[in-house]
Amino acid sequence: MITIQGKGVSAGVAIGPLYFYRRARNTLRRYEVEDREAEWNRFKDAQAKAVEQLGELAEKARIEAGDEAAMLFETHQMMCEDMDYEEAIEGFIKESGLNAEAAVTDAGLIQAEAFAAMDDDYFKARAADVKDISGRIVGILSGVVQGGIDSPVPVILASDDLAPSETVQLDKSKILGFVTSGGSGSSHTAILARTMGIPAIIGVGEQLKEEYEGRTVIADGGTGSVIVNPDEATTAKLMAKRAELLKRQELLKQLKGQPNVTKDGQSIRIYCNIGNPEDVIPVLENDGGGIGLFRSEFLYLNCDDFPTEEYQFEAYKKVLSDMGGKEVVIRTMDIGADKMIGYFNLPKEENPALGNRALRICLNRPEVFHTQLRALFRASAYGRLSIMFPMVTSVWEVQEAKKACEQVKRELTEEGIPFSDEVDLGIMIETPAAAVISDRLAKEVDFFSIGTNDLTQYTLACDRQNNDLGRFFNAHHPAVLRLIKLVAENAHKNGIWCGICGELGADLELTETFLSMGLDELSVSPRSVLPLRQKVRETEVAACRERLMGELMSDQISL
Fold first, then answer.
1. Nearest to 282 by CA among 385, 199, 194, 195
2. Are the C-beta atoms of 20 and 159 separated by less than 8 Å?
């Protein structure tokens, strides 16, 4: 039995085989083959597998986002079997003796360059499609697994850490829990685990060895322990803990339908954070009052080229319709920093967290922003939509974003396309600059939502993705809490509501503090709704407000 210690960032206990995430090779193997006919047959098998995969993705996309989204994958299916494309590959293999991986790559580049040189925008866009299908076929030939998991049974997934573009591709039905050598409590792996309601442990470092693959492990997200080859006594103990946690979850279900009201009558809204339309299911299962943060950038991460207006419209429409009139706050794309996407062609930056990201990209690339806003306002006809702009530092940025919204509304009116006139516009407060001038920003918008992950990062000058900083990244720091209090006060002085959509909203140690500050809403992962509701209902705000606010302002608050 081997015990590995890390940091638990999503509670729960899971048992299963350990499996290491499979990434594509960075280098292409190129060599001459002896049996050219056998190599051609190897390509044909990979081609058939790619067509099958794309068909499955098309059906998944049709269910999640409609026919327009499915058409992308159906187009890729046809391009996989395009005669010119196939003949080029055949020539490289049978005439030049190239291995299939190199033949597919070279044929794909030639065809992509031909498309890119065309005058027609539609055909130019096909260049990216050819590169994508070539990459898929090369991946199959190289043994790379689409979605990173090739296992007949669910696994505990091990990795150094996962990028947002990787988490969005995962086959989530195969994941029992996460164990990463790096990462942080606010990494996308941790956020995904909390959304899924499964255990996650980060920061195990070099203790995580590939030789452990396939062995039975127990991951305890509460203590941060990973037990490799557990003995009978340890297994029995942790399975009993797991049963107790599941029993507690069942008891919490009795809180469904109950109001989020403290003992002395103070109400607060408890909403949920999601990353794609599928996440609405756990929101409803856990009785979320609405969606306080839909991370729309995951739609971009899930595409090989800029998602069309129709693709986005179908996704937003589905979420709004499925939520049945409950409020849905959709954040405009927060691309950049730790969420880089190749087709955006963003220049390499020394410090991307302080560079061209989020609303800055939207204002610098108005054509991309315009497409998203059209999709959002069109979808507003199907539910209660609010739009939120991230990474704000100045009043003029908000004013420019509002002008873009007005332009879209004028266009839709002229085109006779229906949309709601009651779409609220808000901003994320996630920079110290926005917090300090929140009195001025409040005059421009309908609501604030505080992104505590980035607010902590920028206030403390601590990279949220750097687990080595450990105790220096302290979201309970008085500076962070004072800024939250300032923002809430300025919001209320100007007659708008203020919530939290960062991970701190689910921190039960701070629930009393947030209630004492008068926050109107907390948006958390779906599995956090009922525990948070229980905490709210057990709290008497009047009894703790004076003490907590006094501690906060005198630096005596527990760190």
1. 195
2. yes
Task: For residues 550 and 552, give the distance between their C-alpha atoms in angstroms, rounded to a whole number.
Answer: 5
Report the SS3 class of residue 535. helix
Note if 188 is an active site residue: yes
Q: Which residues pair with 294 in a beta bridge?
A: 274, 330
pLDDT at residue 487 greater than cutoff 80 = yes
CA dihedral 316, 322, 324, 330 (to 10 degrees): -30
Q: What is the DSSP letter of 267?
A: B
One-character DSSP codes across 402-470: HHHHHHHHHHHHHHT----S--EEEEEE-SHHHHHTHHHHTTT-SEEEE-HHHHHHHHHT--TT-GGGG
Type and span of the H or E element at 124: helix 121-141
Which among 76, 80, 188, 498 is annotated as catalytic? 188
Q: How many CB atoms lie within 10 A of CB 485?
A: 21
Q: Catalytic: 501? A: yes
Residue-wise pLDDT for 56-84, tens only, equals 877 876 765 566 667 777 888 888 888 88
- Looking at residue 255, the DSSP 8-state letter turns out to be G
Are the beta carbons of 449 and 500 closer than 8 angstroms? Answer: yes
The torsion angles phi and psi of 302, rounded to 5 degrees, stand at: -90, 5
Using the predicted structure, report yes or no on whether residue 285 has a pLDDT greater than 70. Answer: yes
> Topology of domain 2-22+148-251, per CATH?
Glucose Oxidase; domain 1 (3.50.30)
Asked if the domains at 36-141 and 256-552 fall in one CATH topology, the answer is no
Q: Choosing from 80, 362, 498, 501, which is the catalytic residue? A: 501
CATH assignment of 36-141, given 3.20.170.30, 1.10.274.10, 3.40.1360.10, 1.10.3720.10?
1.10.274.10
Instruction: For residue 439, give the amino acid letter.
Output: D
Please give the backbone phi and psi of residue 471, each rounded to the nearest 5 degrees, phi first: -65, -15
0.90 cut: is pTM over it?
A: no
Query: How many residues are listed for the chain in this entry?
Result: 559
Question: How far apart (Å, rounded) are the C-alpha atoms in residues 166 and 188?
Answer: 10
Whether the predicted pLDDT of 164 surpasses 90: no
The residue ranges of every structural domain in the chain are 2-22+148-251, 36-141, 256-552
* CATH code, residues 256-552: 3.20.20.60
Nearest to 157 by CA among 181, 141, 140, 139: 181
> If 0-12 CB within 10 Å is exposed, 13-18 middle and 19+ buried, where does residue 242 land?
middle
